[in-house]
Inverse folding.
């Protein structure tokens, strides 16, 4: 048994987070919830991002399940999916990032120092619904720090939510 709702969420805004049109189907099931996306869009910093169709996110019996969730704007891409963990009884969340312009989103969270550049790489969130740990392996290209050109940076990092410790290596 499940209840199905067709989702058509449309927002309008004059600000940097502009119009959005989120489309899909929402399913309420005895073991959780699921949304299957149809092609959708959102405006961020005057750039139209497309959420491709056929991606899905589900919460079933306390597990996060994502498959084929893809956001794109020209050459920028963020793809998300989950896979069962080798270390525990949960799914890990993976995000593959390609040429993401950090200057489009960082100012919403951090005004100073000014950070700009293109991010590519992978982020892994282990046990996202429990005690999440985050691992990153990223490359920052055309990186600028307060308008000074730094060039290319490799960043590997880890965050442990239990110990609240973060480790990072920057090359």
């Amino acid at each position: 048994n499940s209840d199905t709702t067709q989702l058509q969420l449309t927002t309008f805004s004059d600000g940097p987070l502009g119009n959005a049109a989120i489309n899909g189907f929402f399913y309420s099931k005895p073991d959780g919830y699921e949304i299957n996306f149809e092609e959708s869009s959102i405006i961020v910093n005057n750039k139209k991002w497309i959420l491709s169709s056929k991606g899905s996110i589900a919460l079933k019996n306390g597990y996060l399940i994502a498959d084929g969730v893809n956001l794109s704007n020209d050459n920028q891409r963020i793809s998300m999916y989950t896979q069962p963990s080798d270390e525990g009884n949960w799914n890990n969340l993976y995000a593959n990032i390609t040429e993401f312009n950090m200057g489009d989103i960082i100012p919403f969270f951090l005004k100073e120092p000014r950070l700009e550049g293109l991010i590519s790489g992978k982020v892994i969130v282990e046990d996202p619904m429990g005690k999440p740990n985050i691992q990153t392996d990223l490359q920052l290209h055309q990186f600028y720090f307060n308008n000074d050109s730094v060039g290319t940076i490799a960043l590997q990092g880890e965050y442990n939510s239990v110990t609240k410790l973060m480790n990072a290596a920057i090359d």
Summary: The chain has no helices and 13 strands. The chain has a mean pLDDT of 94. The two ends are 53 Å apart (CA to CA). The longest strand covers residues 17-29.
